[in-house]
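Justification of resources, computational component.

The compute hours requested in this renewal are based largely on the per-chain cost of generating structure records like the one below. Each record pairs the submitted sequence with a full structure-token output. That output is archived, and it is also reused by downstream analysis tasks.
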Amino acid sequence: MTRLKVEMKTIGVLTSGGDAPGMNACLRALVRKGIFEGLSVMGIERGFRGLIEGKAYPMPIGSVANIIQRGGTVLRTARCKEFVNKNGRAKAARFLRNFSIDGLVVIGGDGSFRGAHELYQEHKVPVIGIPGTIDNDIYGTDYTIGYDTAVNVALESIDRIRDTASSHDRLFFVEVMGRDAGFIALEVGVGGGAETILLPETKTDLKEMCDRIKRGIARGKTSSIIVVAEGDDAGNAFEIARKVKGVIGMDFRVCVLGHVQRGGSPTSRDRLLGSTLGAAAVDALLAGETDKMVGIANDKVVLVPLRDTWRKKKKINMDLSRLAEILSK
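The structure output for this chain reads:
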């Protein structure tokens, strides 16, 4: 177990990678929990780029008022190529020392956690990660901040699309985010009653899918919803739709939900998760923990080595995938 004996007086926090609904709830909890514990909190703007450029400011209790319901991140986020190399991380470490920041909390995905891990390994900066990504693909936690909101936004869109699909006797291909993981697609597909769900984790059999659609037409179905994760092996939603039309000839429409899944007010679940993990990150630093992620497993806060979050792969629930196949017939 990695623990440090460092007296915490000031902690820093940044959001990195893609934004996710619930990040602001997490920031609010972290700041208020930190102040409750007698700490000063510094907000670092634009992720690791701000860490290198020295863009930080104190976050008193009032700085996080009225943000729990807001999407995005008030600290903003950015990609930072310079942080990938050792010189960039050395600049970041100097900045932390100059601002007397004793520990750092990084809210983001596995790419952000790699950066935090390297910062600890090279400069012994105490770091704690909080999983913030709509994809829910971080090993070691049941849920990531932003996932529930993304699912509900996509599900609402599919409900609306189904009304149009039924009215016009069409196939609708709905593409959701998930370049490497199909968590959103699977949950949205089951919840939205999709006839087919295409996932990066499974090989797509276009012939079998076309046969399934034909069987549905034969028994009177006049429309179908196909949910496509953007990283499916058969291609994107437009490519797959054209291939399917070439086989069955049915008119189709494609809807790519894209970044709309990232925006908007976070759900109650994401606000609660963000609040829980924000406070847990403060507790972890005060306990001397470092180079770990705070996550949720079976409704309990857990600590997971940062390196596990990218070295180990979070598996999709194949039982749910098989249930989706049964329910769609």
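The radius of gyration is 22 Å. The longest helix spans residues 147-168.
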